[in-house]
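Reviewers of the previous submission asked for a worked example of the structure-prediction workflow described in the proposal, so we include one complete record here. The input consisted solely of the amino acid sequence. No template or homolog information was supplied to the procedure at any stage.
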Amino acid sequence: MKLKFAFLNLFLGCISILIVNTKFISNSKGEELLKVELHNEIKKGKFLIGLKQYLGGENDSFSEKKNINFTTNKGFLNLISSNGVKHKSKQINITWADIPVKNPKIIERIVFGPFASYESAKKQSEKLRDKGFETTVAYPKNWEVWIPFQDDLPEFELKNKIFRKIKNFQITPVLRNDYSGMKLEGPIYIYSEEKIKINGVNFGKNFFLIKDLYGTWTLVQKIEFDDYLAGVLPYEIGPNSPLEALKAQAVIARTWGIFNSNRFNMDKYHLCISTQCQVYKPSEISYKNVQKAIDETSNLILTHENQPINAFYHGSNGGVSATAGESWQIQDYSYFNSIIDGSKSLNKIFKLPITNESYLNNFLDFDKEQFYGSNHSLFRWNKKISSLEIKEKLIKNKLININEDVLDLNSIERGSSGRVTKLEIQTDKGNKSIVLVKDDIRRVLNFIPSNLFTINKLNDDLWLLRGGGFGHGVGLSQSGAIEMAKLGFSYEQILNHYYRNAKLKKFEILSQWKLSN
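From that input alone, the workflow returned the following C-alpha coordinates.
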Protein backbone atom coordinates (compact mmCIF):
# COMPACT_ATOMS: atom_id res chain seq x y z
CA MET A 1 0.00 0.00 0.00
CA LYS A 2 2.87 2.38 0.83
CA LEU A 3 4.45 1.63 -2.54
CA LYS A 4 1.11 2.38 -4.25
CA PHE A 5 0.82 5.81 -2.64
CA ALA A 6 4.47 6.55 -3.27
CA PHE A 7 3.84 5.90 -6.95
CA LEU A 8 0.75 8.13 -6.90
CA ASN A 9 2.70 10.94 -5.27
CA LEU A 10 5.35 10.60 -7.97
CA PHE A 11 2.62 10.69 -10.61
CA LEU A 12 1.05 13.79 -9.08
CA GLY A 13 4.45 15.43 -9.21
CA CYS A 14 4.67 14.58 -12.92
CA ILE A 15 1.29 16.08 -13.77
CA SER A 16 2.30 19.44 -12.38
CA ILE A 17 4.63 19.86 -15.38
CA LEU A 18 3.15 22.10 -18.10
CA ILE A 19 2.56 20.50 -21.47
CA VAL A 20 3.94 22.27 -24.54
CA ASN A 21 1.51 24.90 -25.86
CA THR A 22 -0.47 24.88 -22.59
CA LYS A 23 -1.23 28.29 -21.05
CA PHE A 24 -3.20 29.63 -18.15
CA ILE A 25 -6.21 31.75 -19.02
CA SER A 26 -8.19 34.17 -16.91
CA ASN A 27 -9.88 36.35 -19.54
CA SER A 28 -13.68 36.75 -19.69
CA LYS A 29 -13.95 34.83 -22.97
CA GLY A 30 -12.52 31.72 -21.36
CA GLU A 31 -14.87 32.03 -18.39
CA GLU A 32 -17.84 32.52 -20.72
CA LEU A 33 -17.02 29.35 -22.68
CA LEU A 34 -17.01 27.30 -19.50
CA LYS A 35 -20.48 28.35 -18.37
CA VAL A 36 -22.99 25.50 -18.55
CA GLU A 37 -26.43 27.07 -18.02
CA LEU A 38 -28.94 24.48 -19.16
CA HIS A 39 -32.04 26.67 -19.36
CA ASN A 40 -30.27 29.42 -21.33
CA GLU A 41 -28.87 26.93 -23.85
CA ILE A 42 -32.42 25.74 -24.63
CA LYS A 43 -33.52 29.33 -25.18
CA LYS A 44 -30.63 29.71 -27.63
CA GLY A 45 -31.84 26.65 -29.57
CA LYS A 46 -29.12 24.28 -28.37
CA PHE A 47 -29.07 20.95 -26.57
CA LEU A 48 -26.32 19.58 -24.35
CA ILE A 49 -26.27 15.86 -25.15
CA GLY A 50 -24.57 13.29 -22.89
CA LEU A 51 -22.74 11.24 -25.52
CA LYS A 52 -20.79 8.99 -23.16
CA GLN A 53 -21.54 8.52 -19.48
CA TYR A 54 -19.57 7.16 -16.51
CA LEU A 55 -16.16 8.00 -18.01
CA GLY A 56 -13.21 6.97 -15.85
CA GLY A 57 -15.32 4.54 -13.79
CA GLU A 58 -15.99 0.81 -13.80
CA ASN A 59 -18.84 1.18 -16.31
CA ASP A 60 -16.73 3.16 -18.77
CA SER A 61 -17.00 1.30 -22.09
CA PHE A 62 -15.81 4.19 -24.23
CA SER A 63 -12.41 5.29 -22.91
CA GLU A 64 -9.94 2.75 -24.21
CA LYS A 65 -7.49 2.11 -21.35
CA LYS A 66 -9.05 5.13 -19.58
CA ASN A 67 -8.06 7.32 -22.50
CA ILE A 68 -9.95 9.78 -24.74
CA ASN A 69 -8.26 11.07 -27.87
CA PHE A 70 -9.55 14.15 -29.73
CA THR A 71 -8.22 14.83 -33.24
CA THR A 72 -9.03 16.90 -36.34
CA ASN A 73 -8.01 16.33 -39.95
CA LYS A 74 -7.00 19.93 -40.66
CA GLY A 75 -7.52 22.60 -38.01
CA PHE A 76 -6.47 23.00 -34.40
CA LEU A 77 -8.20 21.84 -31.25
CA ASN A 78 -8.71 24.15 -28.28
CA LEU A 79 -9.09 23.13 -24.63
CA ILE A 80 -10.06 25.31 -21.68
CA SER A 81 -10.21 23.85 -18.17
CA SER A 82 -11.88 25.31 -15.08
CA ASN A 83 -8.56 25.39 -13.23
CA GLY A 84 -7.19 27.89 -15.74
CA VAL A 85 -5.48 25.65 -18.29
CA LYS A 86 -5.65 26.56 -21.98
CA HIS A 87 -4.25 24.23 -24.63
CA LYS A 88 -4.12 24.34 -28.43
CA SER A 89 -2.81 21.54 -30.65
CA LYS A 90 -3.68 19.11 -33.45
CA GLN A 91 -4.42 16.36 -30.93
CA ILE A 92 -5.65 16.29 -27.35
CA ASN A 93 -5.19 13.21 -25.21
CA ILE A 94 -6.98 12.91 -21.86
CA THR A 95 -6.50 10.05 -19.41
CA TRP A 96 -8.16 9.34 -16.05
CA ALA A 97 -6.29 9.06 -12.77
CA ASP A 98 -7.62 7.82 -9.41
CA ILE A 99 -6.14 10.42 -7.07
CA PRO A 100 -6.44 9.94 -3.27
CA VAL A 101 -8.40 12.61 -1.40
CA LYS A 102 -6.86 14.15 1.72
CA ASN A 103 -9.94 13.65 3.88
CA PRO A 104 -11.96 10.55 2.85
CA LYS A 105 -15.68 10.90 3.56
CA ILE A 106 -18.63 8.55 3.87
CA ILE A 107 -21.45 8.97 1.35
CA GLU A 108 -24.83 7.78 2.66
CA ARG A 109 -28.28 7.91 1.11
CA ILE A 110 -31.59 6.08 0.85
CA VAL A 111 -32.27 4.77 -2.64
CA PHE A 112 -35.77 4.23 -4.07
CA GLY A 113 -36.03 2.13 -7.23
CA PRO A 114 -35.09 0.98 -9.74
CA PHE A 115 -37.84 2.55 -11.82
CA ALA A 116 -38.66 1.58 -15.40
CA SER A 117 -38.74 5.17 -16.57
CA TYR A 118 -37.84 8.73 -15.67
CA GLU A 119 -41.56 9.49 -15.50
CA SER A 120 -42.16 6.97 -12.71
CA ALA A 121 -39.03 8.04 -10.83
CA LYS A 122 -40.11 11.68 -11.03
CA LYS A 123 -43.55 10.79 -9.64
CA GLN A 124 -41.91 9.08 -6.65
CA SER A 125 -39.64 12.08 -6.20
CA GLU A 126 -42.67 14.40 -6.08
CA LYS A 127 -44.37 12.21 -3.44
CA LEU A 128 -41.26 12.36 -1.24
CA ARG A 129 -40.93 16.12 -1.69
CA ASP A 130 -44.53 16.49 -0.54
CA LYS A 131 -43.43 14.72 2.67
CA GLY A 132 -40.64 17.27 3.11
CA PHE A 133 -37.69 15.26 1.82
CA GLU A 134 -34.90 16.64 -0.35
CA THR A 135 -34.80 14.41 -3.46
CA THR A 136 -32.57 13.71 -6.44
CA VAL A 137 -33.61 11.76 -9.55
CA ALA A 138 -30.50 9.90 -10.73
CA TYR A 139 -29.53 7.35 -13.39
CA PRO A 140 -26.48 5.32 -12.25
CA LYS A 141 -27.68 2.23 -14.19
CA ASN A 142 -31.45 2.51 -13.84
CA TRP A 143 -33.67 5.40 -12.75
CA GLU A 144 -33.53 5.93 -9.00
CA VAL A 145 -34.65 8.51 -6.43
CA TRP A 146 -32.23 9.48 -3.67
CA ILE A 147 -32.85 11.14 -0.32
CA PRO A 148 -30.11 11.98 2.23
CA PHE A 149 -29.65 9.41 5.00
CA GLN A 150 -30.84 10.46 8.46
CA ASP A 151 -30.90 8.51 11.71
CA ASP A 152 -34.54 9.42 12.39
CA LEU A 153 -36.00 8.38 9.04
CA PRO A 154 -39.45 6.71 9.18
CA GLU A 155 -39.54 2.92 8.93
CA PHE A 156 -41.03 3.07 5.39
CA GLU A 157 -37.98 4.91 4.07
CA LEU A 158 -35.53 2.67 5.94
CA LYS A 159 -37.00 -0.40 4.21
CA ASN A 160 -35.49 0.90 0.99
CA LYS A 161 -31.89 0.37 -0.06
CA ILE A 162 -29.29 2.13 2.09
CA PHE A 163 -26.24 3.16 0.05
CA ARG A 164 -22.93 3.63 1.86
CA LYS A 165 -19.56 4.27 0.28
CA ILE A 166 -16.27 5.66 1.51
CA LYS A 167 -14.89 8.16 -0.97
CA ASN A 168 -11.10 7.90 -0.65
CA PHE A 169 -10.09 8.82 -4.20
CA GLN A 170 -11.26 11.13 -6.95
CA ILE A 171 -11.43 10.27 -10.65
CA THR A 172 -9.47 13.10 -12.27
CA PRO A 173 -8.92 13.95 -15.97
CA VAL A 174 -5.29 14.50 -16.96
CA LEU A 175 -4.10 16.26 -20.11
CA ARG A 176 -1.14 14.22 -21.35
CA ASN A 177 1.58 14.00 -23.96
CA ASP A 178 4.36 11.46 -24.33
CA TYR A 179 6.39 12.92 -21.48
CA SER A 180 4.17 14.67 -18.95
CA GLY A 181 0.66 15.48 -17.82
CA MET A 182 -1.45 18.13 -16.15
CA LYS A 183 -4.45 17.73 -13.86
CA LEU A 184 -7.65 19.30 -15.19
CA GLU A 185 -10.86 20.38 -13.46
CA GLY A 186 -14.32 20.47 -14.93
CA PRO A 187 -16.16 21.59 -16.78
CA ILE A 188 -13.56 21.21 -19.53
CA TYR A 189 -14.42 22.75 -22.90
CA ILE A 190 -12.94 21.30 -26.12
CA TYR A 191 -13.78 22.90 -29.45
CA SER A 192 -12.60 23.44 -33.01
CA GLU A 193 -13.64 25.12 -36.25
CA GLU A 194 -13.35 21.67 -37.87
CA LYS A 195 -15.22 18.48 -37.01
CA ILE A 196 -13.60 16.58 -34.18
CA LYS A 197 -12.98 12.85 -34.06
CA ILE A 198 -13.21 11.29 -30.60
CA ASN A 199 -11.52 7.90 -30.28
CA GLY A 200 -11.69 7.73 -34.08
CA VAL A 201 -15.41 8.59 -34.42
CA ASN A 202 -16.52 11.87 -36.03
CA PHE A 203 -18.86 13.68 -33.62
CA GLY A 204 -18.95 17.46 -34.07
CA LYS A 205 -17.27 20.70 -32.98
CA ASN A 206 -18.18 21.61 -29.38
CA PHE A 207 -17.77 19.37 -26.33
CA PHE A 208 -17.63 19.48 -22.56
CA LEU A 209 -16.27 17.00 -20.04
CA ILE A 210 -18.47 17.37 -16.96
CA LYS A 211 -18.29 15.62 -13.59
CA ASP A 212 -21.46 13.72 -12.70
CA LEU A 213 -23.22 12.69 -9.46
CA TYR A 214 -21.43 9.36 -9.33
CA GLY A 215 -17.85 10.66 -9.26
CA THR A 216 -17.32 9.79 -12.93
CA TRP A 217 -17.46 12.08 -15.98
CA THR A 218 -19.72 12.63 -18.99
CA LEU A 219 -18.70 13.63 -22.52
CA VAL A 220 -21.28 16.25 -23.52
CA GLN A 221 -21.92 17.62 -27.00
CA LYS A 222 -23.27 21.14 -27.50
CA ILE A 223 -25.40 21.08 -30.64
CA GLU A 224 -28.05 23.11 -32.48
CA PHE A 225 -31.58 21.68 -32.37
CA ASP A 226 -31.71 20.91 -36.09
CA ASP A 227 -28.25 19.30 -36.16
CA TYR A 228 -29.41 17.11 -33.27
CA LEU A 229 -32.54 16.10 -35.20
CA ALA A 230 -30.37 15.04 -38.16
CA GLY A 231 -28.88 12.43 -35.81
CA VAL A 232 -32.28 11.38 -34.37
CA LEU A 233 -34.65 10.93 -37.32
CA PRO A 234 -32.65 8.24 -39.18
CA TYR A 235 -32.54 6.07 -36.05
CA GLU A 236 -36.00 6.74 -34.64
CA ILE A 237 -38.32 6.58 -37.65
CA GLY A 238 -35.85 5.67 -40.43
CA PRO A 239 -34.40 7.80 -43.25
CA ASN A 240 -36.55 6.16 -45.94
CA SER A 241 -39.87 7.04 -44.31
CA PRO A 242 -42.24 9.26 -46.35
CA LEU A 243 -41.53 12.97 -46.14
CA GLU A 244 -44.71 13.86 -44.20
CA ALA A 245 -43.94 11.18 -41.59
CA LEU A 246 -40.40 12.55 -41.28
CA LYS A 247 -41.80 16.06 -40.79
CA ALA A 248 -44.11 14.80 -38.02
CA GLN A 249 -41.16 13.04 -36.35
CA ALA A 250 -39.02 16.20 -36.63
CA VAL A 251 -41.66 18.28 -34.84
CA ILE A 252 -42.25 15.82 -32.01
CA ALA A 253 -38.55 14.99 -31.54
CA ARG A 254 -37.81 18.72 -31.19
CA THR A 255 -40.80 19.15 -28.85
CA TRP A 256 -40.00 16.09 -26.73
CA GLY A 257 -36.37 17.20 -26.37
CA ILE A 258 -37.37 20.66 -25.15
CA PHE A 259 -40.03 19.39 -22.72
CA ASN A 260 -37.64 16.78 -21.28
CA SER A 261 -34.53 18.96 -21.26
CA ASN A 262 -34.42 18.81 -17.46
CA ARG A 263 -34.01 15.02 -17.45
CA PHE A 264 -30.30 15.10 -16.55
CA ASN A 265 -30.18 18.42 -14.70
CA MET A 266 -28.36 16.66 -11.86
CA ASP A 267 -25.46 15.90 -14.19
CA LYS A 268 -25.49 19.28 -15.98
CA TYR A 269 -26.70 18.21 -19.42
CA HIS A 270 -30.09 17.86 -21.09
CA LEU A 271 -30.47 14.46 -22.75
CA CYS A 272 -28.80 11.09 -23.26
CA ILE A 273 -28.54 9.23 -26.59
CA SER A 274 -30.31 5.95 -25.74
CA THR A 275 -33.96 4.88 -25.69
CA GLN A 276 -34.18 6.45 -22.21
CA CYS A 277 -34.28 9.70 -24.20
CA GLN A 278 -34.24 9.70 -28.01
CA VAL A 279 -31.80 7.55 -29.98
CA TYR A 280 -29.12 9.87 -31.38
CA LYS A 281 -26.02 9.11 -33.46
CA PRO A 282 -23.88 11.64 -35.32
CA SER A 283 -24.43 10.75 -38.96
CA GLU A 284 -21.78 10.87 -41.65
CA ILE A 285 -24.50 10.52 -44.29
CA SER A 286 -26.78 13.43 -45.15
CA TYR A 287 -30.23 12.09 -46.04
CA LYS A 288 -32.01 14.43 -48.44
CA ASN A 289 -35.55 13.87 -47.14
CA VAL A 290 -34.46 13.93 -43.50
CA GLN A 291 -32.83 17.32 -44.00
CA LYS A 292 -35.83 18.57 -45.99
CA ALA A 293 -38.20 17.51 -43.20
CA ILE A 294 -36.07 19.33 -40.60
CA ASP A 295 -35.75 22.47 -42.73
CA GLU A 296 -39.46 22.66 -43.60
CA THR A 297 -40.49 22.32 -39.94
CA SER A 298 -37.60 24.34 -38.49
CA ASN A 299 -38.44 25.89 -35.11
CA LEU A 300 -41.93 24.31 -35.02
CA ILE A 301 -43.03 22.58 -31.83
CA LEU A 302 -46.32 21.21 -30.49
CA THR A 303 -47.92 23.18 -27.67
CA HIS A 304 -50.87 23.02 -25.31
CA GLU A 305 -51.95 26.16 -23.47
CA ASN A 306 -48.82 27.88 -24.77
CA GLN A 307 -46.46 25.25 -23.29
CA PRO A 308 -44.41 22.58 -25.08
CA ILE A 309 -46.18 19.22 -24.73
CA ASN A 310 -44.64 15.98 -23.51
CA ALA A 311 -44.63 14.56 -27.05
CA PHE A 312 -44.33 10.83 -26.38
CA TYR A 313 -44.04 8.49 -29.36
CA HIS A 314 -43.31 4.80 -29.98
CA GLY A 315 -42.94 2.12 -32.67
CA SER A 316 -46.43 0.59 -32.90
CA ASN A 317 -49.60 0.92 -30.82
CA GLY A 318 -51.14 -2.33 -32.08
CA GLY A 319 -54.19 -0.46 -33.37
CA VAL A 320 -55.16 1.42 -30.20
CA SER A 321 -53.30 4.21 -28.44
CA ALA A 322 -52.82 4.55 -24.68
CA THR A 323 -53.18 7.41 -22.25
CA ALA A 324 -50.06 8.50 -20.34
CA GLY A 325 -51.64 7.50 -17.03
CA GLU A 326 -52.09 3.86 -18.04
CA SER A 327 -48.50 3.54 -19.26
CA TRP A 328 -46.62 5.27 -16.42
CA GLN A 329 -47.33 6.19 -12.82
CA ILE A 330 -47.92 9.81 -13.76
CA GLN A 331 -50.76 12.25 -14.34
CA ASP A 332 -52.74 12.08 -17.56
CA TYR A 333 -52.27 14.79 -20.16
CA SER A 334 -55.39 16.13 -21.85
CA TYR A 335 -53.81 15.87 -25.32
CA PHE A 336 -53.47 12.07 -25.04
CA ASN A 337 -56.57 9.95 -25.47
CA SER A 338 -57.16 6.29 -26.16
CA ILE A 339 -58.16 6.11 -29.82
CA ILE A 340 -58.76 3.29 -32.28
CA ASP A 341 -55.93 3.91 -34.74
CA GLY A 342 -57.61 3.42 -38.07
CA SER A 343 -60.36 4.53 -40.42
CA LYS A 344 -63.69 6.07 -39.35
CA SER A 345 -65.48 2.81 -40.17
CA LEU A 346 -63.21 0.95 -37.75
CA ASN A 347 -64.13 3.39 -35.00
CA LYS A 348 -67.79 2.42 -35.46
CA ILE A 349 -66.98 -1.26 -34.97
CA PHE A 350 -64.90 -0.95 -31.78
CA LYS A 351 -65.81 1.31 -28.87
CA LEU A 352 -63.54 2.20 -25.98
CA PRO A 353 -62.84 1.34 -23.23
CA ILE A 354 -61.67 -2.22 -23.86
CA THR A 355 -62.56 -3.61 -20.47
CA ASN A 356 -61.90 -7.37 -20.57
CA GLU A 357 -59.86 -10.11 -22.22
CA SER A 358 -62.74 -11.40 -24.35
CA TYR A 359 -63.26 -7.99 -25.96
CA LEU A 360 -59.50 -7.55 -26.42
CA ASN A 361 -59.20 -11.00 -28.06
CA ASN A 362 -61.92 -9.97 -30.56
CA PHE A 363 -59.99 -6.76 -31.22
CA LEU A 364 -56.70 -8.66 -31.79
CA ASP A 365 -58.48 -11.13 -34.11
CA PHE A 366 -59.91 -8.41 -36.36
CA ASP A 367 -58.51 -7.86 -39.87
CA LYS A 368 -55.29 -5.97 -39.13
CA GLU A 369 -55.25 -4.32 -42.56
CA GLN A 370 -58.01 -2.01 -41.30
CA PHE A 371 -55.61 -0.32 -38.87
CA TYR A 372 -52.88 2.27 -39.45
CA GLY A 373 -49.39 0.86 -39.07
CA SER A 374 -50.32 -2.81 -39.46
CA ASN A 375 -47.12 -3.51 -41.43
CA HIS A 376 -45.02 -3.27 -38.28
CA SER A 377 -43.42 -6.63 -37.46
CA LEU A 378 -44.89 -6.57 -33.93
CA PHE A 379 -48.31 -5.18 -34.77
CA ARG A 380 -49.58 -8.62 -33.70
CA TRP A 381 -47.47 -11.04 -31.71
CA ASN A 382 -47.66 -14.28 -29.71
CA LYS A 383 -45.24 -15.13 -26.88
CA LYS A 384 -45.07 -18.45 -25.09
CA ILE A 385 -43.48 -17.94 -21.68
CA SER A 386 -42.64 -20.55 -19.09
CA SER A 387 -42.77 -20.34 -15.31
CA LEU A 388 -38.98 -20.74 -15.31
CA GLU A 389 -38.51 -17.69 -17.58
CA ILE A 390 -40.73 -15.61 -15.31
CA LYS A 391 -38.93 -16.89 -12.22
CA GLU A 392 -35.52 -15.95 -13.65
CA LYS A 393 -36.69 -12.38 -14.32
CA LEU A 394 -38.17 -12.06 -10.81
CA ILE A 395 -34.95 -13.32 -9.20
CA LYS A 396 -32.85 -10.95 -11.33
CA ASN A 397 -34.98 -8.04 -10.12
CA LYS A 398 -34.79 -9.28 -6.49
CA LEU A 399 -38.54 -9.80 -6.23
CA ILE A 400 -38.38 -13.48 -5.15
CA ASN A 401 -35.66 -15.84 -3.96
CA ILE A 402 -34.29 -18.91 -5.71
CA ASN A 403 -36.45 -21.29 -3.66
CA GLU A 404 -39.75 -19.85 -4.88
CA ASP A 405 -41.65 -21.03 -7.96
CA VAL A 406 -44.23 -19.28 -10.14
CA LEU A 407 -47.75 -20.75 -10.00
CA ASP A 408 -49.95 -18.38 -11.97
CA LEU A 409 -50.14 -15.19 -14.03
CA ASN A 410 -53.19 -12.89 -14.10
CA SER A 411 -54.12 -9.44 -15.35
CA ILE A 412 -56.00 -7.78 -12.49
CA GLU A 413 -56.41 -4.29 -13.98
CA ARG A 414 -56.55 -2.78 -17.47
CA GLY A 415 -56.54 0.75 -18.82
CA SER A 416 -59.06 2.20 -21.27
CA SER A 417 -57.04 0.92 -24.27
CA GLY A 418 -57.09 -2.63 -22.89
CA ARG A 419 -53.47 -2.53 -21.76
CA VAL A 420 -52.54 -4.41 -18.60
CA THR A 421 -51.87 -1.91 -15.82
CA LYS A 422 -51.56 -4.45 -12.99
CA LEU A 423 -50.13 -7.94 -13.49
CA GLU A 424 -50.29 -10.43 -10.63
CA ILE A 425 -47.72 -13.23 -10.41
CA GLN A 426 -48.58 -15.86 -7.80
CA THR A 427 -45.82 -17.93 -6.19
CA ASP A 428 -45.80 -21.09 -4.08
CA LYS A 429 -44.66 -19.24 -0.95
CA GLY A 430 -47.87 -19.20 1.10
CA ASN A 431 -50.33 -16.73 -0.36
CA LYS A 432 -47.57 -14.48 -1.70
CA SER A 433 -48.04 -12.72 -5.01
CA ILE A 434 -46.03 -10.11 -6.89
CA VAL A 435 -47.99 -7.25 -8.49
CA LEU A 436 -46.23 -5.41 -11.32
CA VAL A 437 -47.72 -2.01 -12.16
CA LYS A 438 -47.75 -0.26 -15.56
CA ASP A 439 -44.20 0.31 -16.93
CA ASP A 440 -42.70 -2.08 -14.36
CA ILE A 441 -44.40 -4.95 -16.22
CA ARG A 442 -42.11 -4.54 -19.23
CA ARG A 443 -39.11 -3.52 -17.12
CA VAL A 444 -39.19 -6.82 -15.22
CA LEU A 445 -40.61 -9.08 -17.95
CA ASN A 446 -38.61 -7.40 -20.71
CA PHE A 447 -39.43 -10.07 -23.30
CA ILE A 448 -42.97 -8.60 -23.58
CA PRO A 449 -43.15 -6.09 -26.51
CA SER A 450 -46.07 -4.09 -25.04
CA ASN A 451 -48.70 -4.15 -22.29
CA LEU A 452 -51.49 -4.79 -24.82
CA PHE A 453 -51.97 -8.54 -24.38
CA THR A 454 -54.24 -11.32 -23.15
CA ILE A 455 -53.12 -14.27 -21.02
CA ASN A 456 -53.96 -17.85 -21.95
CA LYS A 457 -52.77 -20.62 -19.62
CA LEU A 458 -51.62 -23.66 -21.63
CA ASN A 459 -50.58 -25.81 -18.64
CA ASP A 460 -49.19 -25.42 -15.12
CA ASP A 461 -45.84 -24.15 -16.41
CA LEU A 462 -46.64 -22.42 -19.70
CA TRP A 463 -48.66 -19.37 -20.81
CA LEU A 464 -49.45 -17.89 -24.20
CA LEU A 465 -49.54 -14.10 -24.39
CA ARG A 466 -51.42 -12.75 -27.41
CA GLY A 467 -50.69 -9.12 -27.99
CA GLY A 468 -50.21 -6.14 -30.24
CA GLY A 469 -47.77 -3.30 -30.65
CA PHE A 470 -44.25 -2.39 -29.62
CA GLY A 471 -43.59 0.19 -26.91
CA HIS A 472 -45.72 2.15 -24.47
CA GLY A 473 -48.45 3.10 -26.97
CA VAL A 474 -48.71 6.80 -26.00
CA GLY A 475 -48.75 9.54 -28.65
CA LEU A 476 -47.58 9.06 -32.22
CA SER A 477 -47.21 5.53 -33.55
CA GLN A 478 -44.27 5.70 -35.96
CA SER A 479 -45.61 2.83 -38.08
CA GLY A 480 -49.03 4.50 -38.07
CA ALA A 481 -47.56 7.84 -39.13
CA ILE A 482 -45.67 6.16 -41.98
CA GLU A 483 -48.87 4.55 -43.29
CA MET A 484 -50.90 7.74 -42.91
CA ALA A 485 -48.25 9.62 -44.92
CA LYS A 486 -48.43 6.97 -47.65
CA LEU A 487 -52.22 7.44 -47.71
CA GLY A 488 -51.76 11.15 -48.40
CA PHE A 489 -52.13 12.70 -44.93
CA SER A 490 -50.04 15.81 -44.25
CA TYR A 491 -47.74 16.02 -41.23
CA GLU A 492 -50.17 18.50 -39.63
CA GLN A 493 -53.01 15.96 -40.00
CA ILE A 494 -50.82 13.19 -38.59
CA LEU A 495 -49.92 15.30 -35.56
CA ASN A 496 -53.54 16.30 -34.99
CA HIS A 497 -54.56 12.64 -35.14
CA TYR A 498 -52.16 11.56 -32.38
CA TYR A 499 -52.01 14.73 -30.26
CA ARG A 500 -55.56 16.03 -29.82
CA ASN A 501 -55.92 19.72 -28.90
CA ALA A 502 -52.19 20.41 -29.40
CA LYS A 503 -51.13 23.34 -31.61
CA LEU A 504 -48.11 23.98 -33.81
CA LYS A 505 -46.17 27.09 -32.82
CA LYS A 506 -42.79 28.65 -33.54
CA PHE A 507 -40.06 28.04 -30.99
CA GLU A 508 -38.95 31.70 -30.95
CA ILE A 509 -41.51 32.63 -28.29
CA LEU A 510 -40.24 29.93 -25.93
CA SER A 511 -38.41 32.60 -23.93
CA GLN A 512 -41.86 33.61 -22.67
CA TRP A 513 -42.68 30.10 -21.52
CA LYS A 514 -41.86 28.19 -18.38
CA LEU A 515 -40.06 24.93 -19.09
CA SER A 516 -41.06 21.88 -17.04
CA ASN A 517 -39.13 21.45 -13.78
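The radius of gyration is 26 Å. We consider this example representative of the routine output the project will generate in years two and three.
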